[in-house]
Amino acid sequence: MATPVLEAIDQTQAPPQGPPRPNVIYTWLTTVDHKKIGLMYIAYALVFLLVGGVEAILMRIQLAVPNNHFISPQVFNQLFTMHGTTMVFFVGMPILFGFGNYLVPLMIGARDMAFPRLNAFSFWVSAFAGLLLYFSYFGASGLYAAGSAPDVGWFAYAPLTAKVFSPGHSTDYWTLAVFLSGVGSIGTALNIVTTILCMRCKGMKMSRMPLLPWLYLVMASLVFVAVSPLTAAQIMLTLDRYIGSHFFDTQAGGSAVLWMHFFWIFGHPEVYVLVLPAFAFVNEIVPVFSRKAMFGYPAMVAASVSIGFISLSVWAHHMFTVGLGAAGNTFFVFATMVISVPTGIKIFNWLATIWGGKIIFATPMIFCVAFLFQFLIAGLTGIMLSAAPFDWQLGNSYFVVAHFHYVLVGSILFALFGAFYYWYPKVTGKMMSETLGKWHFWLFLIGFHLTFDFMHVPGLLGMPRRIYTYEAGRGWGGWNFIVGVGAIFQAAGLLIFCYNLVRSYYRGKEAGHDPWDAWTLEWAVPSPPPVYNFAIEPTVNSRRPLWDLKHPEDPDSDYE
Amino acid sequence: MMNTSSTIPVEGAIEAPWTLPYRGTVGMACLIVAEAAIFIIFVVAYIFYIGKSISGPTPAQVLELPIFGTICLLSSSITVHFASSALRKNNLHGCTAFLAGTVLLGAIFLATTAREWYHLIYEKGLTIQTNLFGTTYYSLVGLHATHVVVGLILLSTTLAFSLTGHLKEEHEKKLEVLSLYWHFVDAVWVVVFLVVYVLGR
Description:
heterodimer, A: 560 residues, mainly alpha, Cytochrome C Oxidase, Chain A, disordered N terminus, B: 201 residues, Four Helix Bundle (Hemerythrin (Met), subunit A), 6 helices, elongated
């Protein structure tokens, strides 16, 4: 019987890499190619990662010893505001959107995103939002003074943000930057959902889609319902500050608690918006380096979707100390605890994937192993904090700071580093240095644990977050010193990583199509992929089209 | 080295023909979800602040039911539907007429809102700064009116294309995407009407 065939491998040669043309800037500024836009997102986020990292180091120097006056209290307030806002809105979101932009069309066998021009628009809006935030250092007091960045904290509680309490324009810069970043995020999320639903190649049913696009689908859907409320709240705050409305004006009967609700309706799902792509990277890396197919694909999809839903009903666990009443407390305690069930399913599935595999401990994989371990601990402290009485004791302490940095750094950033080492060969055609990668990993791992393991302790001893300095007799000094030392290790690791990114581009080994012997469609095209992605539109018959191609005697499609 | 030209025979024929949803529709659906979330936040703020103003005027003193404007806006949902089904049947003149009707009805709605605001601001002295009612009323109704304005710009552009003969049967799907947005704007008005003029009074 004549049978249809799978043709995934592109035989077209990559275009020759000539010397950079004079119009290279013009090309990048005007591009609508999903790969170029993805790379711009990532580059822009890396710049802000360094900026946010410097801010963190300055704060750690200030807190390393008691009664320190390394920086002024005003500057300290600006630093923690800018650090939080930068890391969430101008590092986390853009870097994850960058990877999504680059990878989703390649993994589903599409030519580009569904709306390429909207894609460029979203990127530039987000990029200018970041510049706007940092322009506050020059523009926030008009011509009178420089150095008045926003200082209201990254969640900007009312009524501190009111015009009377935050005069000048620094808070306006914060509001507008976050608003614009929200517009860009919604645009990109819309693009990702539409791309995944409407642009899949032939044969790629939803049940055959790789897990990375699946998790990006959940993440992008979450962006609509999570980021939009924040955008609405920013409109209200702008109205309050500019034309004298009273949404959060407590003098006119407005409610400060309403802002907290609106902010955390965004703020908690946002954590899942950031962590779902990290799960997505681990989902791709762990099977390839365990040489096994993903364990429990349907359970993984179901767990991701249910995390998306449950994450919408947990926001008020950020507000236990406000006093929600017994019914409210009970609901949010249980909702928060329930979300650890699908998360646990994921952890067990990753472990089951690794179990019995021929594990290859290349740099992407060791970052994922560290992710597994650290994400588990982050989840455990999360369950501790989900209990309202425990939270009353430790809310707004350094224990909370340590917990969420375990999620953001220990889980998301580690998975991201893994993703960099894993997909760098695809993007540049060169392998990243394994030696430098191991140095990066161990330095960052030691630094991470020095900083964030020991940060739990001053929290338990009663140290509140966001304090400028503390008395020597409190017993927090030694712990904070260790935390500061860890920051230095992390900075060293990060610098090695940046050096590795640049060095490997010029001196790295040639990677070829498929250096990791992987199974998803992006490895079927040359590295770097040509502008058109696929010369022939691929057809897939299973979740691992390249496995089918390499093992025609035993294709996956027989088992799915 | 990997075999770059291998092909795999697949058991049996590939099932049904490969069709995926139209991306315009999916994109608009996503936009509607995101916009709905924004409106929900404004509606929640409105409901939360009902009766919490510490000075007058109150909704019961100044608001009147905008029956005429509501009828116009809801009818425009029907006309835009007829416009897109006329285009599907390649009835270009009918499409132009229904588009013109939609734009007209939408414009009348905006005019009634403008008249209401004029009345409230200059005769009743209610502005966005007056009290919490003014704050939530103008921002919610204003947010909706902004969406009506955007819809009217898009519809007028389509009408201009239609009058100059550039709108063809092949644009039927795109017009349907636009009408989806317009239906959403109308549906939001139903919620705003119930919350502001029925529940809030």
